[in-house]
Write a structure and sequence with these properties.
The structure holds two protein chains of two kinds. Chain A has helices spanning about 25-30, 40-50, 60, 70-80, 80-90, 95-100, 125-135, 160-170, 190, 200-215, 230-235, 265-275, 300-310, 335-340, 410-415, 445-450, 455-470, and strands spanning about 10, 15, 155, 175-180, 215-220, 240-245, 250, 265, 295, 315-320, 345, 350-355, 365-375, 380-385, 390-395, 400, 405, 440. Chain A is an alpha/beta fold. Chain A is globular. In chain A, about 50% of the residues are buried. Chain B contains nine helices and 16 strands. A seven-stranded antiparallel β-sheet of chain B has the order 6-1-2-5-4-3-7. A seven-stranded mixed β-sheet of chain B has the order 11-10-9-8-12-13-16, sandwiched between helices. The N and C termini of chain B lie far apart (about 35 Å). At the A-B interface, strand 5, strand 7 and helix 12 of A face helix 1, strand 7, strand 14, helix 8 and helix 9 of B.
Chain lengths: ~475, ~280
C-alpha cells in the first residue's frame, strides 16, 4: 500500500491524500524491540477519517470478518469523538487495538473501499488502531453492563483470538464463560507468536484484562486433553464447549541435519523471544541463540516476524530463504517492505536440502538448491521446480524453520466423537463451527489450518451466536 | 485465575538432589506414573520439565526430585514450605505402559532414581516381578534406597567409587543378570544420558525391550515448539507429546547430548549472575 503524498484531484476538487503512518527509522528500530509504526496523532486521524465518503452501501463492512460498522466509527473519528468511535467498533470487535495492527486490511475492508478504485483507500486499520489506543491511554475503557445471568456455563479451550472473541461475545449475552489456556499467559499467538515490535504485549494484556472485567474467567496452565478432557468439562457442568486451540504443531522439512543445535521451529524461536522474553536474557531466564548468520526458511508473515527478530537479536546477516519468488510470498506487503527496509537479505528460488553441523552438533552450513517456477499447483501459485546440479552452500549458525504448522492431536485424541480430516483439523458441519460431537464447537486455525487472527475472531463470533441458541434451547 | 502451588515440604536428599512437595490438586488426581510437569517459578523464570515422582490425590500434592544443575533448579531448591511456585502445567506426556510385564529390570542412575521409582511402584502394583538396580557416583549421592527396596523383589545398589554396594556401574550388574540367565521381559533405564546409552547397548544384543525416559530442553511442553525433538529410529519425535519414554535401542543419544548442551554458556552466565546463595557448590 503506497501513500501518495500528492494532492488527489477529481473534478478540479482537491482531496486529502491517505495519511502516512509515522514509523521508527529502520536503522534505529533494528536495535530495539519497540513497535515500528508510531500511530496517528488526533489531527492526522481526523484528516484521514474525513476522507471517508460514507457510502450508502459500504463495501468495507462486507470485507470485515467481524462486521465492524466502519463508516459509523469513521464518522465519529471525523467529528473528533474518539471514544464514541472506540465504542462503535467494540460493538462487534472486542480486540480493536490488536486488529488495527495485525489484520490484513489490504485484503479485507480497505480492499473494498470505494476510494481505492481511483485513489488510495481510507486507512481503516490505522484509524482502528488509533481509536483503540486513544481509549486505552485515556483510561476510558468502559465495561458494558452484562444482561441477567442465563445460568449457562460455557468452556472455551484456548485463549487465542478465536477463544477471546467468543468469550467476550458469550459473556455479553449473560453466560458464564471460562477460558482454559495451556500456557501461563492468555493471548495465544498474540502473546507467543507476534513480536513486540508489531504488537506490544501490554496491548494484548490490556485487551485480556478488559475481558476479565467483563466477567470472563481465565484459567491458565490448564492443558485440556491432559489435565482434563472435553468429557470432564461436560461432567463438571459446562453446557457447551468451544475449541479454539490453534494449529500449534510446527512442521519441519525432514531433511538431513534438521535436528542440529541452532535450528528452531518458528514457533520455538518466537515463543522464546516473545512469550519468554529471551531478548531480555539474562534479566529473564530463558535463553535464545543470538546468531550472526541467521537463515529463516519460508515466506509467510511468521517468517518475516522471525527474520526481523533475528536482526534485533544482533544478526549480521539475516536471510529469508524462499523457494518461490517475491510475487508468490504469502506475507503481507507491509511486512516484506519493513523487512527490506531493515536489511533482511532475500534469497528467492532457493530451497535448503541439508544442514551440516560442527563437532559440537551445532549447525554451521546449509546446502541449498536453486529452483525455477513451473506450472501452477493446486494453490494457484507456480510450482517451484529444482534446477539439477545447482547445489550451493551458505554459512549460517542459526536456522528458523517457518514452513507452516499443523494440528496438535491431543484434543481430538482424547475427545470421543470429534471427527478430524486427514490433516488432523477438526471437521465442522457448518459455518458456525459445530463439530460432530454434540455441544462442541470449534473455530480458528484448528478448523481452517494456519490463517489470520481476524478469521479466527470471525469464527469465534459465528460460533458464539450458535452456542447461544443451543444453550438457550436446552 | 491460577491455582496456587504452595510448597508443603522440602528435603535435601543428597549433596545436590532435592525433593519438593507442592500443592497441585487437579494434577495430583489425574497424574499417572511416567508423566511430567512443566514448571515456571515466577514471571521472569524459564519453563522446565520435571517428572512427577509421587502424588497424593487426597492432600492434592505432587512430589518432584531434581538435581541442582542451573539457575532454575538452584532457585527452586531455595524455596521451602509456604513458598509458591508460579506456574505448573501437567500432567504431560504418555504414562508408562506397565501392563502385562512378567519381569522388569528398573535401572536408575543418580537423580534418575527419582523418575524411576514411581514406574517401579506402578509395575509392582500390576504384579510384575521387579528387579531394581540403582546407582550413584558415591554413597552420599544415592537416593531413595529404602523406597526402591519397598517396591522391588530384588534390589541391587552400585556406586562408581565403591563407597557403597557394588563397586561399578548399574550396567555391569545388568550385564551380570543377563549372563546369569535371568529372564527379563523389559528394562526401564532412567538416568544420565551416558548411562541410558550404555544400558541400551547392553540389552540390544539380547533383544530385551528397553525403555528410556528422556529429559531434553522444553519450552511449552504441549507439542507447540519442537525444542524437545529427538531422533528415534531415524524419525523426529517430540519428547513432550510422543514421549517421554522411547525405545532405547532406537534413540540417537549423541544428538540428545549435543542438544542438551545448546545453552551451556547462557546457563552458566545465568547461574553465575544469580548466585542465589546455595550452600554446597
Amino acid at each position: 500500500m503506497t501513500d501518495k503524498d500528492k494532492t488527489e484531484k477529481k473534478d478540479g476538487k482537491e482531496r486529502i491524500p491517505r495519511q502516512p503512518m509515522p514509523e521508527q527509522d529502520p536503522k534505529t528500530r533494528v536495535g530495539n524491540f519497540d513497535e515500528v509504526p508510531l500511530g496517528y496523532t488526533p489531527e492526522t486521524a481526523i484528516l484521514e477519517a474525513k476522507r471517508c465518503i460514507q457510502c450508502k452501501k459500504p463495501g468495507c463492512v462486507t470485507g470485515c470478518p467481524v462486521d465492524v460498522d466502519i463508516p459509523g466509527f469513521l464518522q465519529r473519528v471525523a467529528e473528533g469523538d474518539f471514544l464514541g468511535a472506540a465504542r462503535k467498533i467494540k460493538e462487534t470487535n472486542c480486540l480493536p487495538a490488536v486488529c488495527g495492527r495485525v489484520c490484513p486490511q489490504e485484503d479485507q475492508c480497505e480492499k473494498l473501499c470505494i476510494l481505492g478504485r481511483k485513489w488510495d483507500p481510507v486507512a481503516i486499520g490505522r484509524l482502528e488502531r488509533f481509536v483503540a489506543d486513544y481509549e486505552r491511554q485515556a483510561g476510558a475503557v468502559e465495561v458494558p453492563e452484562t444482561p441477567a445471568p442465563t445460568g449457562k456455563r460455557i468452556a472455551v479451550v484456548g485463549a487465542g483470538p478465536a477463544g477471546l472473541t467468543i468469550a467476550g461475545d458469550l459473556v455479553k449475552m449473560g453466560h458464564e464463560v471460562t477460558i482454559f489456556e495451556a500456557l501461563h499467559k492468555a493471548g495465544g499467538v498474540l502473546i507467543y507468536g507476534i513480536p513486540e515490535f508489531r504488537l506490544p504485549k501490554s496491548i494484548v494484556d490490556a485487551e485480556v484484562e478488559y475481558l476479565r472485567r467483563l466477567g470472563v474467567k481465565i484459567v491458565t496452565d490448564a492443558a485440556i486433553g491432559r489435565l482434563k478432557t472435553v468429557d470432564d468439562l461436560f461432567a463438571e457442568g459446562f453446557h457447551a464447549v468451544f475449541l479454539g486451540v490453534g494449529a500449534g504443531a510446527p512442521v519441519f522439512m525432514n531433511i538431513p541435519g534438521e535436528n542440529f543445535s541452532g535450528i528452531y521451529s518458528a514457533n520455538e524461536y518466537l515463543t522464546r523471544s516473545n512469550l519468554m522474553k529471551a531478548y531480555s536474557f539474562p534479566e529473564y531466564d530463558t535463553p535464545i541463540a543470538r546468531g550472526r548468520n541467521v537463515a529463516v526458511i519460508g515466506g509467510g508473515n511468521v517468517a518475516m516476524d522471525s527474520v526481523r527478530t533475528a536482526l534485533r537479536l544482533g544478526a549480521e546477516n539475516a536471510y529469508i530463504i524462499y523457494r518461490r519468488t517475491k510475487a508468490e510470498m504469502p506475507a503481507r506487503a507491509e511486512e516484506i517492505h519493513h523487512a527490506e527496509e531493515e536489511g533482511v537479505q532475500f534469497k528467492f528460488l532457493t530451497n535448503p536440502i541439508e544442514y551440516v553441523g560442527d563437532e559440537k552438533g551445532w549447525v554451521k552450513r546449509m546446502v541449498c538448491q536453486r529452483m525455477e517456477l513451473g506450472e501452477p499447483d493446486e494453490s494457484g501459485r507456480r510450482r517451484p521446480v529444482v534446477i539439477k546440479g545447482s547445489e550451493f552452500t551458505i554459512d549460517i549458525d542459526t536456522v528458523v524453520v517457518s514452513v507452516g504448522t499443523m494440528a496438535n492431536p491431543v484434543i481430538p485424541m482424547t475427545t470421543p466423537g470429534l471427527e478430524t480430516n486427514r490433516w488432523g483439523y477438526i471437521v465442522t458441519k457448518d459455518e458456525t463451527g459445530e463439530t460432530t460431537r454434540k455441544g462442541v464447537w470449534a473455530g480458528g486455525d484448528i478448523v481452517t489450518g494456519s490463517a489470520t487472527v481476524i478469521l479466527a475472531m470471525g469464527a469465534g463470533r459465528k460460533a458464539a451466536r450458535a452456542i447461544h441458541d443451543y444453550v438457550m434451547a436446552m | 485465575m491460577e491455582t496456587l502451588h504452595r510448597i508443603t515440604e522440602k528435603v535435601v536428599l543428597s549433596e545436590n538432589i532435592v525433593k519438593t512437595v507442592f500443592e497441585a490438586p487437579e494434577i495430583a488426581r489425574k497424574r499417572r506414573a511416567g508423566q511430567f510437569v512443566i514448571l515456571m517459578i515466577d514471571e521472569k523464570g524459564e519453563r522446565i520439565p520435571l517428572t512427577i515422582v509421587d502424588s497424593d490425590p487426597v492432600k492434592g500434592t505432587l512430589t518432584i526430585i531434581y538435581q541442582v544443575v542451573g539457575k532454575t533448579t538452584d532457585q527452586l531448591a531455595q524455596l521451602g514450605p509456604g513458598d509458591v511456585i508460579g506456574h505448573v502445567l501437567g500432567p504431560l506426556g504418555h504414562p508408562t505402559d506397565v501392563d502385562g510385564i512378567g519381569t522388569a529390570v528398573c535401572v536408575g542412575g543418580g537423580v534418575g532414581i527419582g523418575v524411576l521409582y514411581p514406574i517401579a511402584r506402578a509395575l509392582k502394583e500390576k504384579g510384575t516381578r521387579v528387579i531394581s538396580i540403582i546407582g550413584a557416583r558415591t554413597k552420599k549421592m544415592l537416593i531413595l534406597e529404602e523406597e526402591s527396596r519397598g517396591v522391588s523383589d530384588e534390589l541391587h545398589v552400585t556406586t562408581d567409587d565403591g563407597s557403597y554396594g557394588y563397586h561399578g556401574f548399574v550396567s555391569d550388574v545388568l550385564r551380570d543378570l543377563i549372563a546369569s540367565g535371568t529372564k527379563i521381559d523389559r528394562v526401564f533405564a532412567i538416568g544420565p544420558v551416558p548411562m541410558m546409552r550404555v544400558v541400551s547397548n547392553v540389552t540390544r544384543p539380547h533383544g530385551i525391550r528397553t525403555l528410556v525416559s528422556l529429559n531434553p530442553i522444553m519450552v511449552d511442553g504441549t507439542g507447540m515448539c519442537g525444542a524437545c525433538r529427538v531422533t528415534v529410529g531415524g524419525k523426529t519425535k517430540f519428547t513432550c507429546v510422543d514421549g517421554p519414554e522411547f525405545d532405547g535401542h532406537e534413540v540417537d543419544f549423541g544428538l540428545l547430548t549435543s542438544r542438551l548442551q545448546m545453552y551451556a554458556e547462557q546457563e552458566q552466565l545465568a547461574r553465575d549472575r544469580c548466585r542465589c546463595g546455595n550452600h554446597d557448590r
